[in-house]
Sequence to fold (148 residues):
Amino acid sequence: MKSALIDERDGLRTFVLVLATGDEAMKTLASFATEQGLGGSHFSAIGACSRAVVAYFDWPAKQYRHIPIEEQTEVLSLVGDITLEDAGPKVHAHVVLGKADATAYGGHLIEASVRPTLEIVVTELPRHLHRRIDRESGLALIDPTVAR
Fold:
């Protein structure tokens, strides 16, 4: 992975990350967030991957169902946020992956093996965002009222 700080003003930063073949997207992004102390950020990306795992939230079971995609796909859209959960950064991403026949898969991104590149722009927000467990869903959701 290559990265650069492309803008910094009023304590906020914007980064560009360029992942290469073999990089695991979610792990790389989480490591970068930890290194940079990110806790309130938004990101978007495009690129491609050789395999991925997406998921959807099964409401009755209250758990994510994983869907492996074992083929080369284009990352048509990858968007997400970086927040704080349990004192560390939490990367939450949704993706749309395009297949060779122009069909698409989408969902919550669990993992993706980059090939040949993934270009990510990360923009830091004015304050950190924290997650709290929601009793109804069992998920850690952003609580905008927490200002630490």
Q: What stands out?
A: The chain has one domain: 2-143. The domain at 2-143 is CATH 3.30.1330.80 (60s Ribosomal Protein L30; Chain: A;). Strands lie at 2-9, 12-20, 41-58, 63-69, 73-85, 88-98, 104-124, 130-133, 140-143.
